[in-house]
Amino acid sequence: MLDLCPGGELFSYIAGGNGRGRITEMQAKICFAELLLALEHLHSQRVVYRDLKPENVLVDVEGHLRLADFGLSKMEIGPIDMTATFCGSPEYMAPEMLAQLGHGHALDFYQLGALLYELLSGLPPFYSQNRLKMYQDIITANRTT
User: What's the CA gap between 93 and 80, in Å, rounded?
Assistant: First the structure.
């Protein structure tokens, strides 16, 4: 069971659906903080979420965020454990997922960063209609900046 979330999906706020525009920087900070707390709680319970994207974040009655759709989550993954299942939404896949190196809690933090980028810009960081190009850009991007 999930509490009523009449605010719909976070995606509708980014895409400007239902007459809404893009969110402000302050709203993005609050979203980031709430999602970070949610991920930290899941990780403390040895769960890796693995599918953080605006469509899986709901807005409750008070305007707070709720994670939904735990179908790709992996249980019993501790801070140093790794899993190797290839899964997730293409726009939010971390380099280690694409390279099939194994992944753990850090994957959720990569997706959180990608979501923050989308909250502020309107699109995921490496978005391309050409999926192969997008994957290549994710793998080869300079991560020192």
Answer: 20
Tell me whether residue 1 is in a domain.
Answer: no
Residue 2 lies in a domain: no
**Would you say how long the chain is, in residues?**
145
Instruction: Give the structural domain span for 88.
Output: 8-140
Cβ atoms of 16 and 22 within 8 Å: the answer is: yes
- The pLDDT tens digits of the residues spanning 107-129 come to 999 999 999 999 998 889 999 99
Render pLDDT for 29-78 as a digit per residue (tens, 0 to 9).
999 999 999 999 999 999 999 999 999 999 999 999 999 999 999 999 99
Beta bridge partners of 113: none
Q: Catalytic: 51?
A: yes
Domain containing 80 — which CATH number?
A: 1.10.510.10
Single out the catalytic residue among 3, 51, 60, 69. Answer: 51
Q: What is the pTM of this model?
A: 0.89
